[in-house]
From TrEMBL:
This is Sensory transduction protein RegX3. Residues 142-237 form the OmpR/PhoB-type domain. Residues 142-237 bind DNA. Keywords: DNA-binding, Phosphoprotein, Transcription, Transcription regulation. Pfam families: Response_reg (PF00072), Trans_reg_C (PF00486). InterPro entries: CheY-like_superfamily, OmpR/PhoB-type_DNA-bd, Sig_transdc_resp-reg_receiver, WalR-like, WH-like_DNA-bd_sf.
Length: 241
């Protein structure tokens, strides 16, 4: 995923960019509001007469610091939201409730207060990006997903391999459906535990490993779910043809 980091402190930006890169993000750094808007908005969308919230920015998420040198981050958020639906997470030291409400009213998708836990920030990035998956990436209209011989029927929670039904437990299906939402995207272990088991990572790591191993066996495709060492798992869509 490409991510736009809007942060005027080069040291903070460098440290955060390194962390994000280790988790599979391609980070573009903008040092002020003007740089951010140029990077984010296609030329035609700078014309109000041609503005369209469906415009594609090329970024999955914007991390927007509010204390920018050239213009207030709230103002930048408002301009972004008038031109594109790209998710915006405000990252700021302003912790008061009124500031948070103001940011959300301007169209921010989330609001993270400094200092923050990196794991929480990563989880929030993944959460807002999933809520705004582009229509072309959201899967077939009949709520089914095909991954080579594996077919997942979301409404009925049925899975088949080469036309033969495969019996999965509830958690196995939930895990597979989560990974299948975005093939190729790395889901962090903590994030998977939180969303599938609705609990924290402590003491649940072995459970996740067992479920992944079981899925690989039942789907007869060990390579379908790839382990990303030190990070988590991703679903690898089989090559077409």
């Amino acid at each position: 995923m490409r991510l736009l980091l809007v942060e005027d402190d080069n040291h903070v930006a460098a440290a955060l960019s390194a962390v994000l890169a280790r988790h599979g993000f391609e980070v573009v750094h903008a040092r002020n509001g003007e740089e951010a808007l140029r990077a984010l908005l296609p030329p035609d969308t700078n014309d109000p007469a041609k503005s369209d919230k469906s415009a594609k920015s090329g970024f999955g998420v914007v991390l927007l610091d509010l204390g920018l040198p050239d213009q207030d981050g709230y103002e930048v958020c408002g301009k972004i939201r008038k031109r594109t639906a790209t998710p915006v997470i405000m990252v700021t030291a302003r912790a008061d409730v009124r500031s948070r409400i103001h940011g959300l009213n301007l169209g921010a998708d989330d609001y993270v207060v400094k200092p923050y836990d990196t794991g929480e920030l990563l989880a929030r990035i993944h959460a807002v990006s999933r809520r705004t998956v582009p229509e072309e990436a959201a899967g077939p209209a009949d709520d089914s997903l095909s991954l080579g011989p594996v077919r997942i029927e979301l409404p009925t929670r049925q899975v088949s391999v080469a036309g033969q039904s495969v019996q999965l437990t509830r958690k196995e299906f939930d895990l597979l459906a989560l990974l299948a939402q975005r093939p190729g995207v790395v889901f962090r272990r903590e994030q998977i535990i939180s969303e599938v088991w609705r609990t924290s990572w402590e003491g649940t790591g072995r459970t996740l490993e067992v479920h992944v191993a079981s899925l690989r066996s039942k789907l007869r495709s060990p390579a379908l779910i790839e382990t990303v060492r030190g990070v988590g798992y991703r679903l690898v869509a089989p090559a077409q043809g």
